[in-house]
Amino acid sequence: MPLDFYDISDTQHRQRLFEIEHVDFGTLQEVLVKLKKVSGVEIDPYGTTRIYPDHVELIISLIKAELLEGKTNKELKKHEVLNRLLRYFETASNGLLVIGE
After folding, report:
1. pLDDT given for residue 74 in this prediction
2. Are 4 and 91 in contact (CB under 8 A)?
3. Domain extents for the chain?
4. With 0-12 CB in 10 A as exposed, 13-18 as middle and 19+ as buried, what is 77?
């Protein structure tokens, strides 16, 4: 169940910016719960979701906050995934169109 991310203006889904696999989506779950609580935005893993620029900025700040928490060896893999996802979201200045499967 990968999620495909496109520029929000790419309504024809011509150029995928990045993809988040099911495992990585699970790593991002705490961030997504906080996103929904703060903004009401929920990424539907089976549908289409629009994420506007202010929500992208919120996701970036939530990921950064998550990275500042616990740094045990057990969480190193989680930090690697979050750092990679952070780089993806930082490239999305116009907003994102998320297509679930």
Report:
1. 62
2. no
3. 3-99
4. exposed
